[in-house]
Amino acid sequence: MDDFSKIIDRLGFHGPTILGVCSILLLRNQFVYLMVYVIGFMVNIKINEILKLLIKQKRPEGCEEDFKKGDAHYYGMPSGHAQMSFFSVAFTYLVLKNQPFMIWMSLLGWITMFQRYNTKCHSIPQLAIGAITGGCVALFIYWMTKYVWKKYIGLF
Predict the structure, then answer these.
(1) What is the extent of the structural domain holding 43?
(2) How many domains does the chain have?
(3) Which residues of the chain fall below pLDDT 70?
(4) Among residues 139, 136, 133, 144, which one has the least CA distance to residue 49?
């Protein structure tokens, strides 16, 4: 593996963490959205675990990561890396509407999905469903914060 491939592999593997830290830094001046993002990120993790345990679709042959059989992460559908990455991309974009940040963050999300596919830890459908799920959870939480909580609870 050459140096460029190693960089892409590391970026992709740690993509959800990098995107999470970026989202926190970008949302630091939007206190309510920052708190909602952190809570939403944790909820998104639980949703991923529940979906994995309900669907129980195996990972592709050849994944070298070690997962405990029966644990949620033993299963591949939906991809947690893709789900967490695109939750961060979508939520941060919805709050800030900043296209340059969205492009950079989306690129890292795509690198993450490429890494998960390239290391045979996920199939394309597992990655697609993960990304779509993460984006949908972000959209729902953003909508709840902006329109429902604001109107009925008066958070803003």
Answers:
(1) 3-152
(2) 1
(3) 1, 149-156
(4) 133
- CA 36/CA 57 separation, integer angstroms: 30
Burial of 82 (0-12, 13-18, 19+ CB in 10 A): buried
Q: List Cβ neighbours of 119 (8 Å cut-off, separation of 6 or more).
A: 9, 63, 64, 65
Residue range 114-141, pLDDT digits in tens: 988 988 889 999 999 999 999 999 999 9
pTM for this entry:
0.86
Q: Which two tokens stand for residue 104?
A: 């950079």
Report pLDDT for 84: 96
Q: Are 85 and 58 in contact (CB under 8 A)?
A: no
Q: Which residues pair with 19 in a beta bridge?
A: none
Tracing tokens 């045979």 back to the chain, one arrives at: 120
Is-contact 42 90, C-beta < 8 A? no
Give the integer Cα–Cα distance in Å for 30 and 24: 10
Q: What is the CA radius of gyration of the chain?
A: 16
- What local confidence, expressed as pLDDT, does residue 20 receive? 95
